[in-house]
Amino acid sequence: MALDYILSTLMKKTDWYKDAIIYQIYPRSFCDGNNDGLGDIPGIISKLDYLKELGVNCVWLSPVYDSPQEDNGYDISNYRDIYKPFGTLDDFKLMLSEMHKRGIRLIMDLVVNHTSSEHPWFKSAISDKNSPYRDYYIIKKGRKNGKKPPNNWSGFFAEDAWERIGDTEDYYLRLFTKGQPDLNWENPKVREEVKDILKYWLDMGVDGFRCDVITLISKDQRFKSVFPSLALRGKKYFVNGPRLHEYLHELYKDVYANYNCMTVGETVLSTLDQARLLVEPAREELSMIFNFDHTDVDNYFRVKWFYRKFKLKRLKKVVNKWQKGLYQKGWNSLFIENHDQRRCVGRFNTDDKEYREVSAKMLGATYFFLQGTPFIYQGQEIGITNGDFSSLDEYQDVETHNVYHMGEKLKILKPMLKKTLFSRSRDNARTPMQWDNSEFAGFSNVKPWIKVNKNKETINVQESLKQDDSVFHFYQKLISLRNDEVIKNGEYIDLLPRDKNLFCYKRKLGDKEFVVISNFSKKEIKLPKIKELEEYQLLLSNYDKGSTILKAFETRIYRNY
Ligand code: NOJ
């Protein structure tokens, strides 16, 4: 077993997550071990040496629990078992021990804002008014004798938030698909069930949880309608609800405090002030959160379908805000991709073939040395680009289809609708992992559940491992440089806050300074006259030689120690 893992476990080092480099696996798309077209746990086990070689020391596994897969596993029908096509509980245990053997920890996705409508609790709740599970969900009588839903809230996937139960007058709340009924956290029994689920996995040895849409668990019990709007009607009543902090502290006190585990909360629409309350260690709620301010810089009203041109200045502003705002108060998470976001290359810069590799490296270097724990989404480490789907039926994602139907209803012109939808769909990041250039990218021997990206011919792991200067090897270097007190605890200082093409920041701890400069444009730009860039030692760059000119998408890393 890897030494640092053993030591930190023996020493019960509870803040191990501050030294973690976390790799996210989206199991459907990572590796298909039994050639049925769908990724699975044996497939993951077969790639653990690859992860070790990359240098990560923790994996966040998107849901593998039993599920009808209406939302690719974010709809759970049994919290204590594995979705059969992904493998068995024994496969899971083997994966966990093989990870630990390699010094890799495992955090599971915890989806407890809602269950699947196939969960036995829900089936009982809707089929019997006197069921003990009826109050596990949010079930209310509709208005106008059941003809209209209890209020006018709408959910995250472009639909109303209430679903009528058969031809009764009652409705259940579901902020995602109709197959994802929201749990009623007001009911103490629900909270006890959640604690039991957490203990079940922690006792098995998992190291923590990524808590899905955790800021939605407390709803304002007045269930009031709001002034009509297009998206997320009612959000002020269901995001960051009145008992959120109480619930999270309860989980901490009754469960997390007894284990050497970490939690990272997915906190949709949270502000910095709200985030502080969630992660200030003394409050004992979460270890860290994912904020989405930086992924909202290229849209309007925080709605990804409302396209807005990317501007570096906006990105720097939000990075500054979070880096300074949480410094010594809480811990940041750092990410530029995940299974809900499109790929970063081409989003924050360009995916022109000519610049793809330098762009991927530049983005990697830019976020990696900020204060916090870096996450890498599968494929990001080789610079995979968005999927190349050409028609709606190639998309598998439920959100994509819902939004398309909503667009049709609103009579949005088809070419415009398709353009927005195709560039923003979550499926862009869900294409099969590109292991080699074979027909199905080495992901499987048979046609995968979702279309393989054509560029697997050139962008694939096999090729990346061969080339010394590949994106993969660049990420390896980034990872090796992270093990450093300055990067971990240093102050963050933006050296060029007003520059519209260059992102240049310093991390400082005592006399030690670490500097990153990145050119976010295609233009060649004169290296700014900054003493750090003239005097410090150049550690790493995505071009051969450092000169006084920064080339297209060039990035450089310097330090004085
Ligand atoms: C956030 C997850 O990341 C997303 O994939 C999912 O659809 C929703 N939560 C609902 O669980």
Tally the beta strands: 22
Low-confidence spans:
none
Inertia-based shape: globular
Q: What is the count of helical runs?
A: 18
Mean pLDDT: 96
* Residues in helix, %: 25-40%
Q: For the CA atoms, what is the radius of gyration?
A: 23 Å
Order of strands in the sheet with the most strands?
A: 11-10-9-5-2-1-15-14
End-to-end Cα distance, whole Å, is: 32 Å
Q: Characterize the main sheet.
A: 8 strands, parallel
Strand content: 15-25%
Q: Bound compounds, please?
A: 1-deoxynojirimycin
What structural class do helix, strand and pairing data support? Answer: alpha/beta
Topology:
Elements: H1 3-10, E1 22-25, H2 41-46, H3 48-54, E2 58-61, E3 65-66, E4 78-82, H4 89-101, E5 105-110, H5 120-127, E6 139-141, H6 143-146, E7 162-164, E8 170-173, H7 188-204, E9 208-211, H8 235-238, H9 244-254, E10 262-266, H10 272-279, E11 288-290, E12 299-300, E13 303-307, H11 312-325, E14 333-334, H12 356-368, E15 373-377, H13 398-409, H14 414-424, H15 461-466, H16 471-481, H17 485-489, E16 491-494, E17 502-509, E18 512-519, E19 525-526, H18 531-535, E20 537-541, E21 549-550, E22 555-559
Parallel strand pairs: 1-2, 1-15, 2-5, 5-9, 9-10, 10-11, 14-15
Antiparallel strand pairs: 3-4, 6-8, 7-8, 12-13, 16-17, 17-18, 18-22, 19-21, 20-22
Helix pairs in contact: 12-16, 13-14
The chain binds 1-deoxynojirimycin.
Residues 71, 74, 111, 176, 212-213, 266, 339-340 line the site of 1-deoxynojirimycin.
